[in-house]
Amino acid sequence: MSNALRYGLPIAFATLLIVAWADAAFFGALTQVQSFNNKAKKPAPELRIDYLDPFPRDAEAWFNDNFPWRGLFQRFNGQLRAFTNRRSPLPDLVVLGEDDWLYKGGLQLDIYRGKRRFSPEELRKVTAELLARKDSIEARGGQYYLAIAPLKHHVYPQYLPGHVRPLNQEYAVRQLYAALGSTDLRYIDLHTPLRAYAALHPPLHLRARQKNDAETHNLYYRTDHHWTVRAGLLAAQTILDTLIADGHPILAIDTSTYAFKNRPTHGMTLAKMAGLDRENQDHFLSLHHDWTTESSPRPNIQSPPKFPYPNSYVKARQQKDPILRQSLPSLFVTRESFGENLLQPLSDHFGRSFFLFDEWKHKLNLDHYDREGGDVYIQLIWEGFLFNLLEIPEEDGKW
């Protein structure tokens, strides 16, 4: 080996490490990066002379969670892996796509690829459960609908890395739709309209985008797995069109009366988990409209003790006009975070609306429904939580 290679390679490698470290530090790594496990830090260990056995383990756990430069090492590791092999430091949680598009890994990636599908027995049980729910709601005078919010992977597959390919196009949602097609249960297909819209309005390249471009047509955030208010409005429009076709006395959405505003924002959840977040990495989109409904608080309803979003557990709205409040149909929705961005557009078309964030359990919640009522009951589920419909939810079904 020549002297140039013998000395040059170590120097080049050391230089690369220094540059990457400096790059990580200048992008804010000295502040703590969000925990990869999204968990509370371990408390300081208790030193008991009469019981020393657990102290070394507890001290190590505390140190690992509270090490001052932990964020720096996490960010450095994330950026080094992304630069050298285009892989996330946590591939089971975050998948690095093209042009800063990040995707959920793990179970959700397996659902997209068709690797995790319903077995025949699981499909039979889920179908029977949904039909039983429909019967329960109909017995109480309501009409039951199932709506499934798509995975980001299905709407923007073109930015997934080359090694991610579907193994089976008959993925779990299609299995369920096919099974429900032979029943009288009404499901609302959100995959088709969202994918069609995304094809008509492809996102601009991040580097080529003009500084003042609003990205208002993006249906999902680049650095988060959630959909935007644009997707929420489109989903609400699809749901309302279905209800109108079924004879419910409501008006269709006039999308020309809605306005979108955005602001550049720091990289969101997926970027933070991988230690790759930076300033102005994404855009936060907000929806504006002359809303006809107002909040209708439920002070007597308390969220479960350990529910992390107590202000989102129950959200109720009603028409400001008391005549419309009584004359329009009422709505009950069981949802998780994906229900947030269609909450107001849907509510404006009903007299009273009640949205329940049921801790990702996706149960029927008849205790709440019996109290609130609802001419229309919508079970809104993110595709990534689809297996929560099983009696024993899939591991990683909540994230």
TrEMBL record:
Keywords: Alginate biosynthesis, Hydrolase, Periplasm, Signal, Transferase
GO MF annotation: an example: transferase activity
Species the sequence originates in: Neolewinella agarilytica
GO terms for cellular component: periplasmic space
Protein name, UniProt field: SGNH hydrolase-like domain-containing protein, acetyltransferase AlgX
Key word Transmembrane helix present: no
UniProt KW Signal keyword: yes
Domain AlgX/AlgJ SGNH hydrolase-like, residue spans: 94-298
Location(s) in or outside the cell: Periplasm
